[in-house]
């Protein structure tokens, strides 16, 4: 396996081989098409009884999956484009996330909703959004986002396997550009010291710092595809501007509890925090992280900024899309202003 896509595909194969209760539902997921982004390729051939192609009704297929989960199965739903998870919002917010509580802890909803998110492919305003912030902080729902790191046996597919065999419902965010990204082992990142951290009860979180660098002047916090851009920016800041940073990469976006302690420890060292996300600026993941660290660190957090997408629909024009979404140049510019 060399790419994130291959890792996710292998995880689905392994889950379905391991447990007959794993069911896959989605639009156009049957072979030979294998899904819009090919993550489900080969699954309907190997498991024809348990891979179901559905009508174009996100609310309907997520509702069916919720019922299957309540009856003891482990459905995995593919939303063809994450933008349309909004059509299933009622099922997610008012049903899936609440059933355990409404029925006095007598039921579980072991359901995974996979949602390809993000732009930079010219798909236009309704197929390029990053909308996970709409579901952060929802009690009863986990929101996970893989990255391209491979440390020991852990990789993106491992996070998906954890989600499938979790007893709680999970919204699984997959950035589209991450699919073809190569898995990065520590040996592939010779400039960085890569440390996996495992907060109690949470999926792994990664801490990266440049080898031999002095005390960091800045903490970069990013997830998913943006974590790779943060790595590029950190090297540019170090070698071209002598600004040294460390990077914290969570794989669990919500609940926040497992992320906050490692971030707090990093920012306590650096005194500065820059959060980086592809979603729009206001009321996002970075805003919540910032608020939590202000509560934890007070004046020890000397400077804190957020970097995110412009507060406009994502343009279809490639040139305008590039301007509206944060990239390496924007990370470097923000870090230089902060330091």
Q: Your description of this structure?
A:
With 339 residues, this protein is α/β, with parallel strands linked by helices. The chain has two domains: 4-178, Thiamin diphosphate (ThDP)-binding fold, Pyr/PP domains (Rossmann fold, 3-Layer(aba) Sandwich), CATH 3.40.50.970; 189-338, Rossmann fold (3-Layer(aba) Sandwich), CATH 3.40.50.920. It has eleven helices and 13 strands.
Fold blueprint:
Blueprint: H1 4-18, E1 22-26, H2 43-46, E2 51-53, H3 58-70, E3 74-78, H4 89-96, H5 99-102, E4 112-117, E5 142-144, H6 156-164, E6 170-175, E7 192-197, E8 205-210, E9 218-222, H7 225-241, E10 245-250, E11 252-254, H8 257-270, E12 272-280, H9 285-297, E13 303-309, H10 318-324, H11 328-338
Parallel strand pairs: 1-2, 1-3, 3-4, 4-6, 5-6, 9-10, 9-12, 12-13
Antiparallel strand pairs: 5-11, 7-8, 8-10
Helix pairs in contact: 1-6, 3-4, 7-11, 8-9
